[in-house]
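[job 4471] stage=fold_predict status=RUNNING
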Amino acid sequence: MINVLVTGFGPFPGAPFNPSANLVKALVRRRRPALDGIVFTSHIFSTTYAAVDRDLPKLLAAKPDIVLMFGVAGRRRALCIETRARNAVSLLFPDAEGYRPQHGSISPRRPSTLKGNAPFVHMLAATGTSAVPARLSRDAGRYLCNYVYWRALENVCGDRPMVQFVHIPLMKAAKHAQFIAAAEAILIALAAASRH
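[job 4471] inference complete, writing structure tokens
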């Protein structure tokens, strides 16, 4: 069995609807032979630094094999498989509770980036069957998406858990099924890598 934690985010200032939450809910309901042997845990974070700091350690304490996280990036036109988290937070944009970080870095004495530990090229190739534009990205931003990715990567010990963050663009309802298919393809690629 492979234990998979799948997460998304709720609304935040400027985005009263966050499609990552619906994507996560749809993904964990999928039933296909390719997903046999996967045990899902899902979680939708409130879009606050405090929620990530409170909830993520509890979720990771269950020792998932894979952590697959989704968030929305409204200005992007493609699904973005993030390859690294930056040791940076925005001082300009408050979270959903109005909190604004006081310092520009997440962990002052840590490196400027943490590289992800997932099979990026395989995941990108897997999305090719979904008709969704996708690319690798080296910039997870400076908001909660980058923050949760950084915090999850900080908890990697050896090669576990395998951690991946994926940004999705704001999607039209007509494209929802295609994005679910792309998310499923990424998950299947992660599960295949985890089994080796």
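[job 4471] summary: DSSP finds five helices and eight strands in the chain.
[job 4471] exit 0
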